[in-house]
Amino acid sequence: MTLPKPEDIRITYTSQSADMEAAHQLFDQALETVRAQSGAEHPLYIDHQPVTSPLPSMVDLSPIDTRVVLGRFAAATAELAGKAIESAAAQKGAWRRTPWQERVAILRNAAKITRQRKFDLAAVMAVEVGKNRMEAMGDAEETADLIDYYCDQMDETNGFVRDMNRITPIEKNTDVLRPFGVFACIAPFNFPAALSAGMSSAALMAGNTVVYKPAQDTPWTGLKLYEIYRDAGIPAGVFNYVTGSGSVIGDPLWQHPLTDGVVFTGSKEVGLRMYAGLSSRWVKPCLLELGGKNPTIVMDSADLDMAAEGVMRSAFGLQGQKCSACSRVYVHRAVAEAFTEKLVERTKKLVAGDPTRREVYLGPVINERALRKFVGLSAYAREHLEILTGGERLRGGEFDHGHFVAPTIVRAPLDSHFFREEFFLPLLTLGVVDSLEQALYESNQAEYGLTAGFYSAHPAEIEQFWDEIESGVTYVNKRSGATTGAWPGAQPFCGWKGSGSTGKGGCGPYYVAQFMREQSRCLITEK
Ligand code: NAP
Ligand code: MG
After folding, report:
1. If phi over 0 gives left and psi between -120 and 50 gives alpha, with beta otherwise, what is residue 293?
2. What is the DSSP code (8-state) at residue 406?
């Protein structure tokens, strides 16, 4: 069969595209290419120049099989991180003065190249993060859509330039949003393409230059993004790629005096450190998207098959390592038993293993640290709570060389810390409630406020859920995922409370404007 071009197939996280067979074949081809490219040595890229570091390289291992070395990546020193910021600072004037239409054209080109390379990008994420095929292809597609959606925001607003009212007939007033300068862009491991591209493309099209640091676990996906920007025509110094350990170069990046702003997606711990540190010395934008402890509420009127399917998918997709993952479920007592049975039954049927295989849903967790955390939490649950399914590391055969754990459901009393802390693992905590009021109260007790799911047949309950739930992203009666699956331009992704600092989310209509500051221009036109 003649395969279509990658850019002609569209795959979202939940799509059942007619071209799925072709998509799988293109993915297989890409996987072969990617495997053949494994093991290479990679430098930093500053000013589009390869730069090596005196520190020993970081070895990027696949969480599927830790005997596989995906690549060796330069571990930057604090000095090299500073050099990258200086390069970005040197280019900020030229990039700011580049007409916004030209910046947008380059970024639209980046979206186009992303679509052409989407299976390569997906294959790298599959082996580097342990994403299953649908998750990996969805992440790559989202990357392209995010860039285009943010470009639309520039087009729709005339580059954020607008005529204003006059107070007198002899004046002309214009309002212009202008870039801050240099953004440090620091990314997490779990959506290493989409989130990195979302943050950085918005910063770039707004006219900022960027120093980008991918997570230590995902430098290869980060490199692929760098190559897309470079090949799309982003000039030297405007987007710099710096790999290394967060504990070595994290602070030097955001503390550099020439850094004008920070955009970060990751844990609350690291986010708060930067937020506090920045505000103690400077007034600079610090755009944070942080963790979640996302609840789903299942009412007595719910379609229980739909609810069980949605909760299972959101709890265990990408091994529970989504900021939007459903990590706690509050089920009404009247249906608790029936719902729990359906949920556990579905969970037991999940296929774990090497997620590059078509039939596998559940891949490995990201690293040894995540594995140890899972083992510790399971031991606690075994002793103090009730494990309904899972609770162990998977062993034997292909499991022995990767970080594989069983999808786990724990029943706990409502005051357990299992309902409050983000674990970022395939570990779902279930509690029983007697009313919607109680479910909402419990949901809102966590300091996070990212996503929330709701299953009910009653419009009045749905309204009450929307009115009272303290979450930025909500879904009602969604079978394909109780709390997950946001898409650019469709479901803006705004973390409330401890889940984010901005009040305006990625994937949403107000995102790009956050990378700019306002300048009012009043010109007196007559003497
Ligand atoms: P993380 O441990 O906070 O790491 C995020 C990034 O911060 C990495 O690049 C890390 O580098 C870097 N870093 C570490 N120490 C730093 C420092 N002192 N200064 C500056 N940067 C530093 O998060 P993760 O484990 O990669 O990702 C999981 C977390 O991200 C979860 O909490 C999840 O909920 C959150 N998340 C939120 C969203 C959202 O949209 N709200 C989306 C995705 C993920 P190293 O890798 O080198 O340590
Ligand atoms: Mg790795």
Report:
1. beta
2. -
Residue 489 CB-half CA count within 13 A: 12
Mutate which of 61, 290, 427 to test ligand 1's pocket (most atoms within 8 Å of Cβ)? 290
Three-class secondary structure of residue 181 per DSSP: coil
Q: Quote the ligand 1 centre to 287 CA distance (angstroms).
A: 13
Q: What are phi and psi of 4, to 5 degrees?
A: -70, 170
CATH code of the region 19-290+504-520: 3.40.605.10
Written as six digits, the tokens of 338 are: 């029936």
Q: Which two tokens stand for residue 527?
A: 């003497």
Cα separation of 225 and 229, whole Å? 6
- Contact between residue 442 and residue 421 where contact means Cβ atoms under 8 Å apart: no
The DSSP symbol for 246 reads I
Are 394 and 364 within 8 A, CB to CB? no
Alpha-carbon distance of 265 to 242, in angstroms, equals: 16
Instruction: Give dist(CA 376, CA 75) in Å, integer.
Output: 30
294-486: CATH topology: Aldehyde Dehydrogenase; Chain A, domain 2 (3.40.309)
HEC secondary structure over 474-492 = EEECCCCCCCCCCCCCCCC
Catalytic residue among 86, 128, 135, 289: 289
What is the per-residue pLDDT for 13? Answer: 78
**What's at 274, amino acid-wise?**
M
Q: Which two tokens stand for residue 188?
A: 């997490």
pLDDT of residue 11: 86
Is there an atom of ligand 1 within 6 Å of 277 CB?
no
Is position 437 annotated as part of the catalytic site? no
Intervals of the chain under pLDDT 50: none
Beta-carbon contacts of 377 under 8 Å, excluding residues fewer than 6 positions away, are 418, 423, 425, 427
Residue 44 structure tokens: 């930093």
Q: At which residue do the structure tokens 């710099």 appear?
A: 240
Nearest to 487 by CA among 144, 182, 219, 232: 144
Tokens 């699956």, residue located? 485
Give nearest CA residue, ligand 1 atom 43: 323
Distance CA 389, CA 386 (A): 9
Using only the alpha carbons of the chain, give its radius of gyration.
23
- Residues 6 or more apart whose CB falls under 8 angstroms from that of 117 comprise 6, 140, 224, 228
CB under 8 Å to 37, separation ≥6 — which residues?
A: none
Alpha-carbon gap, residue 497 to 505, rounded angstroms: 13
**Domain spans of the chain, in order of start:** 19-290+504-520, 294-486
Q: How far is Cα 391 from Cα 374, in angstroms, rounded to an integer?
A: 8
- Cβ-based neighbours of 264, under 8 Å, separated by 6 or more: 185, 186, 270, 271, 274, 286, 287, 288, 289
